[in-house]
């Protein structure tokens, strides 16, 4: 059973009083664990008498709160954390790495070597100016002057769909990455544990395994509900989004920059945020957070999962799912959101197509178009290195489902470790990791 709501106790900022606040939820074993205790501006909150914990002495209180530092929202003074050398360099390296991924095959072949590393010509332009760019970002962010000034729209293939997304210029991309790295880390604990979009340690594979674990833990879960929103990012209301951000962030230097992220696509408009800006996915996640809590805590959706704007609910009966569907429509209408008519209630054994897999309950298969794409690419590509990359990518999906046979059929190889296939992992920060024992 997925546990979504617990209460605990923590010391107030003064260290003299006790108050109740939301405790972060236990994470799935494959997800990142968190030990922060969540409150809203230090104010105590209680959901029901059953959730209350009795503390009769200070020893019991200290035992309950050991190793759990409190975090009071809204947060302030985050700029020093954002402009650290490590955070800015990490963001720089991440964007540079993404530039290579988006480059064409001809651009990847036409490379420049800098300090022993190969870069495309576009990457090299920024690598040569790395120090100047980092200093520029440090100054503009610390002074509060950083803004997204221009977004370029382009079409991208997302499975069978063509999506129009927007991206800022490269240096502004680096700046927004460095800001959102800290924002996401600090605000992720307020989200429910069963959402997995733009959160470190909680990606689609982790959420897929979370759904599998719920089905395994409760064999009576026979049915699922699945839906997503029509034009989700295009219908996010600016004022509502900014009000939610201000609930958690009060930094006077940082807030104007975050408001700019929300209004970057439509500066003079009232609705719609950019698809492609680093901040958008996390803000979109945060925008639905109150709805998530209402579905779980008010309407009783025990097995509730969400990835971006895709919602999945498991239940023991169709009647329960129809009830929860009505609740979801009701809560969504409060945000001005419309659920697509393609929503579905069906037996899990019919195949739950979610997160890149088709889940049948006691086993899962990789999505058909993922298999077809891998097979077509391998049939065309002649470069040994490129074949290894395609096989490695396909293996990264196939290893999470029951796909050993299809992997062998498409690649002609057994499903091995990445190191056995000649595929190496290079961290975004460029640092080497060495295996070894932890010394006392």
Descriptive overview:
Helix content is 41%, strand content 16%. The protein is α+β, with helices and mostly antiparallel strands and 440 residues long. Helix 3 (85-101) packs antiparallel against helix 5 (121-127) and helix 14 packs antiparallel against helix 15. Mean pLDDT is 80; it is low at 1-56 and 433-440. Strands 10-11-9-12 form a 4-stranded antiparallel beta sheet, sandwiched between helices. A 3-stranded antiparallel beta sheet has the order 13-14-15. Strands 1-2 form a two-stranded antiparallel ribbon. The chain is built from 16 helices and 15 strands. 28% of the residues are buried.
Write the layout of secondary structure elements.
Blueprint: E1 7-11, E2 18-22, E3 37-40, H1 58-65, E4 70-73, H2 79-82, H3 85-101, H4 105-109, E5 111-114, E6 117-120, H5 121-127, H6 130-142, E7 151-158, E8 161-168, H7 170-187, H8 204-217, E9 223-228, H9 238-248, H10 254-263, H11 278-287, H12 289-298, E10 303-307, E11 310-315, H13 318-334, E12 344-347, E13 352-354, E14 357-359, E15 364-366, H14 368-380, H15 384-398, H16 404-411
Parallel strand pairs: 3-4
Antiparallel strand pairs: 1-2, 5-6, 7-8, 9-11, 9-12, 10-11, 13-14, 14-15
Helix pairs in contact: 3-5, 3-6, 3-7, 9-10, 14-15
How does the helix and strand content classify structurally?
Answer: alpha+beta
Note the gap between the termini. 37 Å
The proportion of strand residues reads 15-25%
**Strands, count:** 15
Give the rounded overall mean pLDDT.
80
Question: Sheet bearing the most strands, described?
Answer: 4 strands, antiparallel
Q: How much helix, percentage-wise, in residues?
A: 40-55%
Order of strands across the widest beta sheet? 10-11-9-12
Low-confidence stretches: 1-56, 433-440
Report the principal-axis shape: globular
Number of helices: 16
Give the C-alpha Rg. Answer: 23 Å
- For this entry, what is the oligomeric state of its chains? single chain
